[in-house]
Amino acid sequence: MIPYGRQSVDESDIAAVVDVLRGDWLTTGPAVARFEQDLERLSGATRCVSVTSGTAALHVAYAAAGVGPGDEVVTTPMTFVATASSALALGATVRFADVEEDTANIDPAAVDALVTDRTKVIAGVDYAGHPIEADALNEIASRTGTLLLEDAAHSIGSTYRGRPVGSLADLTTFSFFPTKNMTTAEGGAVATTDAALGERAHRFHFIGLVRDRDEMRHPDEGPWHQEVHEWGLNYRLPDVLAALGTSQLRRLAAFKARRAEIFVRYAEALGDLDGVRLPTRRDHVDPIWHLYPLRVLEGRRREVFEAMRADGIGVQVNYLPVYRHPLFEDLGLRRGLCPNAEAFYAEELSLPMHVGLTDDDVDRVADSVRRAVRG
Fold it and tell me: Residues in the active site (predicted)?
């Protein structure tokens, strides 16, 4: 079976992890600081806080934004559930804006129609690695007094109008799960250019601990003293995984180039095939492709999915619109809420996309698509 996603780990990655295992710090040590600094250089952020997962990154980012009961978060249904459920965890109400018909990214016009005086955060997702329309969304956020969060779980290394993902929004979250564009095994990060948001993110992911004597309520307690002023969680990424992340970052440009080659090879192999629609790339973005979201037309997606799985091709579907999960159904949300998202979901089929694919693998996948679609 050719998997739809897979990590790429080489000897340099293994050596980086072994070096930490042979050292003094397994967590809260220098490898974490180095990884966060490397992320800052790549993303254009002034503060990056590494965390234990992409879901943790979203939870931390919403907490840093001050999201709580009575607040609303406007987000996309075309994402993994954590983009929305992390806001629910803080007591917010989630409202879903429909997506653009071509990119499956959140539609700024739909966002504009949903924002109210209770909206705290607008959260877009860079679906498949294609960045959101950050300029339009930032204009809405500025005009309405909200914050923009970019869920960049798919897009570390992408750029929008020449600017790196990580510098486009008030808060950006990354995921380093093994199927993503780079990995720390499990892990994620929060990036920001706002010092106050960065400090709030750091404090929340560090159990809320305050160690600065100038900020303490009882600074004379003793040299061992530390305080918790606000609720937080232990979402710290350990040095072992941070070292893997630093090593992977050195390979990210090569990962991006290979994914681009695979994207082009699929396009050339499938461009003349009736019954499918190829993914969109807008001229002002330079994406790192996390997914290759083929659209299978005429209601045949499941048929093609099952035929390709039987053919040894590990296709996937990304994603069920979030409001169709029972968690959100039980809150009163129903199918049909976002027509573009529903239409996209009904057709989407993720072809294998990872740097371990050879040209022969890509050709085998494309041949399988053609057989399945032609019946």
Answer: 180
pLDDT at 212 over 90: no
From the list 347, 341, 349, the residue with the least C-alpha distance to 100 is 341
Q: For residue 202, what are the domain limits?
A: 11-249
Report how far residue 372's alpha carbon sits from residue 158's, in angstroms, rounded to the nearest whole number: 32
Q: Give the active site residues.
A: 180
Domain end (from 209, 234, 249): 249
In a domain, 295, yes or no: yes
Is the pTM value of this prediction over 0.85?
Answer: yes
- Decide: 127 and 5 in contact? Cβ < 8 Å: no
pLDDT tens for 137-147 read: 999 999 999 99
Q: Give the SS3 label for residue 348.
A: strand
Each residue of 288-322: pLDDT tens digit? Answer: 999 999 999 999 999 999 999 999 999 999 999 99
Question: Three-class SS string for 151-213?
Answer: ECCCCCCCEECCEECCCCCCEEEEECCCCCCCCCCCCEEEEECCHHHHHHHHHHHECCEECCH
For 49, what's the count of Cα atoms within 13 Å in the CB-facing half-sphere? 30
